[in-house]
Amino acid sequence: MCRKLPAENNHRRKRQGVHAAHRLHILLLLSGKDAGFVRLYTMKDGLDDVIMSLALDGTGRLLLGTFGRSLIICDSNLSPLADISTSDGLLSNGINHIIQAEDGTVWIATREGLGRIDIKNEKLIHLYTREDGLANDYIRALAEDHEGNIWASTNIGISCILRNGETHNYNYRYGIPDGGYLNASSACTPDGRILFGSTNGIASI
Fold first, then answer.
1. Integer angstrom CA distances of residue 9 from 63, 80, 90
2. Is residue 21 pLDDT above 60, yes or no?
């Protein structure tokens, strides 16, 4: 079970906005007439100063992937509620990307493998490494296709974890870069193609 973080009073005004990840901080950007920079959230607020990835779960909680601390779970006001780290079984505290799949589980790309989390109960379901068939343990970015399969760009090629648990890998033999993939750079197009950004262009599968 993840470590619960102490609650703190929060008197910030609630406004409709959009959260954005930054290499060094968390930013809250407002829309409409209040558009612009409003507040900087950092370690002083119980978060972390290097945020690599952001995602919202199905209940509206914000999931923060940090450079080396943990996965931090926050409420809608960015007050930390809990975190999941290596002490809870996560392969690495360095998190490059977070996505929530259609089945509600959250997938975490780390520097030492891939983690699947039951975010509702805040516990790990499964871990994936090269021993489980991944192309490489350093996971850069994630995407889910229309059939519920999970795709991962790594330091050496791209891996796909099928819904039945099978793993398939793709590399230069398929006409895509072996490496150079960028953190949290991925998309699934309406026609079902999976895209990964790299220093050599976009890999399309």
1. 20, 11, 29
2. no
Q: Give φ, ψ of 179 to 5 degrees.
A: -145, -165
Backbone phi and psi for residue 45, each to the nearest 5 degrees, phi listed first: -95, 10
Phi first, then psi, for residue 177 (nearest 5°) are -65, 145
Helix intervals (H) in 26-149: none
Question: Looking up tokens 């209040």, which residue turns up?
Answer: 34
CA distance 149 to 161: 6
Distance between CA atoms of residues 71 and 96, nearest Å: 10
Which residues are bridge partners to 17 per DSSP? 30
Check whether 14 has a pLDDT greater than 60: no
From CA 63, how far away is CA 107, in angstroms rounded? 11
The pLDDT tens digits for 52-75 are: 999 989 888 999 999 888 899 998
Most confident of 14-23, 24-33, 43-52: 43-52
Record the tokens describing residue 63, joined without a space: 């999931």
Phi/psi for 25 (5° steps) reads -150, 175
Q: Is the CB of residue 112 less than 8 Å from the CB of residue 75?
A: no
For residues 43-52, b (16+ Cβ closer than 10 Å) or e, as one string?
eebbbbbbbb
| CA torsion through residues 79, 85, 89, 90, sign | positive
